[in-house]
């Protein structure tokens, strides 16, 4: 089968690889119909995530048709068109019982801090991902969800990560009616966080990014006030002036370790990799939120450390909330939102690329070329 | 709350998910309703992998399901095995893994060549799309590269000339002195 093949930082290609097989009674084999490249895939692509091995197939946002099921699979049958949450959850462990499906304790041998994630390095379990014609899906009765007949598969594939991650970012913000919410990052997750902030009753939503085309998109897609960080001398002073000098009620970091906007963080985090990525967005979030406010983090960082003003977290009495999205928990509500027309995720898809051209798709997304917001790979078998 | 620039009434679904009960502990609070606090559970069937799986020493047992992509191999695999003797809290664990990742890139090229495949690195880097969508940028980068290359070439040539002059200088003086003595 054809699959994306990681060859090193900034180097990927499509190669023939062996077909996946059932390795566990709760496994399924899924023929992929759509597979997105996620902003967090770029952290892997840029060589920022430890234990990313050459030869691995990325891809944690995909949907497809069930081709084969293991003997203990009860809820899925061959031929079902399913969307597959990015996190691999057993549904039984201490964490899954609390609907923390992103923190499963039975799916990642290499680390305890994070549950298994499809195609996201061995730090997240060493599973090949869905940027391929076929993929092995463990715990097939837990995560995969049959796509409703009325739903566009383009919406479905975005329900595997981007939509729930953005939604949970707003949910973790504990937004109260009328709150001012600042979202750092106008990538797909930031866009969904801004869009979701309104659903929780925000009174004002501000989006910060460095790319003008993305800010334009945020203005229309998420009804947000937008500001380009390249035009702002001091981000924190600017946001304080925007919020009666007190700061925002809620700040959301939807950027993670690939941020721009600070030379020192860029040097230590992005280039020298002495930090777990460039943490300037989180730095700004902590310093821009009001005292007693909430900082919600969904941006992805590596597992080591970052330079952030933790002293100000204490002094300001800030609550920090963060997690990998619990996709399975959020799906019923998000499907309802799409059905009711409150959100329209597929509007974010700007590029459809055959799997054979995966290297170009990664480069376009990484370098922010051609107005790229969200690229979707279409495997041959689709 | 600060001034709103958007009429929230015009936003589809505004406030439908507002939840005054959403406190910072959600959803961990549900643990209180479980008799045994969920600390034990009926484990899924154990997978028995046929490839080497490196396990975090913070795990007391192998998780029921594991990923089997790209088992550790070669020199990078040896480094990874050493790294996994240390916990996730130890910086050396991660630094060794990052080092192994970089070495693994070289191993990947060697592996390709051993299979008779010369990796098309410009294609893998996506340079075709760079040319398609950013010709100005490519021209600018090429211009900078040419200018740097030319500068480097001129500088090295000038340095070589200086070295030659320095070497030739004393010889030439010595030759002149010898010639004078001979006369």
TrEMBL record, chain A:
Residue span, Alcohol dehydrogenase-like C-terminal domain: 188-265
PROSITE patterns: ADH_ZINC (PS00059)
Pfam families: ADH_N, ADH_zinc_N
Organism: Sphingomonas jatrophae
Cofactor(s) essential for the protein: Zn(2+)
Any one Gene Ontology molecular-function term assigned to this protein's record: zinc ion binding
InterPro entries the UniProt entry points to: ADH-like_C, ADH-like_N, ADH_Zn_CS, GroES-like_sf, NAD(P)-bd_dom_sf
Protein name: Threonine dehydrogenase
Keyword Oxidoreductase part of the UniProt annotation: yes
Ranges of residues in domain Alcohol dehydrogenase-like N-terminal: 25-144
Alphabetic keyword roster: Metal-binding, Oxidoreductase, Zinc
Family assignment from sequence similarity: Belongs to the zinc-containing alcohol dehydrogenase family.
Key word tRNA processing present: no
Family annotation (Gene3D superfamilies): Medium-chain alcohol dehydrogenases, catalytic domain, NAD(P)-binding Rossmann-like Domain
UniProtKB/TrEMBL annotation, chain B:
Superkingdom assignment: Bacteria
Chain positions covered by the region annotation Disordered: 160-183
Protein name stated in the entry: Uncharacterized protein
Organism: Sphingomonas jatrophae
Organism lineage: Bacteria, Pseudomonadati, Pseudomonadota, Alphaproteobacteria, Sphingomonadales
């Amino acid at each position: 089968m054809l699959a994306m093949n990681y060859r090193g930082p900034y180097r990927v290609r499509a190669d023939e690889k062996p077909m996946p097989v059932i390795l566990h009674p709760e496994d399924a084999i899924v023929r992929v119909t759509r597979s997105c490249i996620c902003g967090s895939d770029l952290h892997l692509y840029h060589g920022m995530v430890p234990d990313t091995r050459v030869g691995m197939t990325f891809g944690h946002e995909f949907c497809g048709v069930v081709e084969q099921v293991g003997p203990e699979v009860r809820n899925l049958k061959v031929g079902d068109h399913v969307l597959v949450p990015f996190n691999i959850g057993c549904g039984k462990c201490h964490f899954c019982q609390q609907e923390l499906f992103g923190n499963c304790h039975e799916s990642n041998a290499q680390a305890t801090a994070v549950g298994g994630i499809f195609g996201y390095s061995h730090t997240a379990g060493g599973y090949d991902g869905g940027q391929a014609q076929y993929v092995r899906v463990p715990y097939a009765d837990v995560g995969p969800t049959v796509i409703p007949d009325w739903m566009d598969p383009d919406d479905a594939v975005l329900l595997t990560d981007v939509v729930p991650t953005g939604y949970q970012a707003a949910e973790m913000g504990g937004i109260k009616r009328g709150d001012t919410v600042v979202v750092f990052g106008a990538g797909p997750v930031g866009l969904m966080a801004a869009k979701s902030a309104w659903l929780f009753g925000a009174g004002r939503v501000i989006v910060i990014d460095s790319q003008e085309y993305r800010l334009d998109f945020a203005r229309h897609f998420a009804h947000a006030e937008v500001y380009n960080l390249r035009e702002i001398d001091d981000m924190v002073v600017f946001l304080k002036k925007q919020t009666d000098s007190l700061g925002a009620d809620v700040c959301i970091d939807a950027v993670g370790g690939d941020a721009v906007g600070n030379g020192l963080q860029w040097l230590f985090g992005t280039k020298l990799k002495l930090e777990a990525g460039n943490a300037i967005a989180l730095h700004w979030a902590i310093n821009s939120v009001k005292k007693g406010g909430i900082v919600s983090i969904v941006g992805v960082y590596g597992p080591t450390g970052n330079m952030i003003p933790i002293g100000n977290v204490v002094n300001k009495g800030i609550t920090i909330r963060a997690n990998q999205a619990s996709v399975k928990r959020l799906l019923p509500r998000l499907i309802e939102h799409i059905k009711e027309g409150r959100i329209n995720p597929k509007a974010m898809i700007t590029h459809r690329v055959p799997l054979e051209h995966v290297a170009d798709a990664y480069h376009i997304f990484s370098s922010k070329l051609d107005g790229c917001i969200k690229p979707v790979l279409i495997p041959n078998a689709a | 709350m600060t001034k709103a620039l958007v009429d929230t009434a015009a936003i589809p679904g505004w406030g439908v998910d507002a939840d005054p009960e959403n406190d910072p502990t959600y959803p961990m609070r549900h643990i209180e309703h479980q008799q045994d606090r969920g600390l034990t559970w009926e484990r899924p069937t154990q997978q028995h992998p046929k490839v080497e799986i490196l396990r975090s020493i913070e795990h007391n047992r192998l998780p029921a399901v594991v990923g089997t992509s790209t088992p550790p191999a070669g020199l990078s695999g040896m480094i990874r095995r050493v790294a996994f003797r240390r916990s996730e809290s130890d910086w050396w664990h991660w630094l060794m893994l990052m080092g192994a990742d970089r070495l693994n890139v070289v191993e990947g090229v060697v592996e390709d060549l051993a299979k008779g495949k010369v990796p098309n690195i410009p294609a893998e880097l996506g340079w075709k799309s760079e040319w398609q969508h950013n010709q100005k940028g490519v021209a600018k980068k090429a211009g900078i590269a040419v200018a740097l290359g030319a500068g480097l070439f001129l500088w090295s040539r000038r340095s070589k000339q200086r070295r030659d002059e320095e070497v030739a200088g004393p010889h030439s003086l010595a030759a002149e002195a010898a010639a004078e003595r001979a006369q």
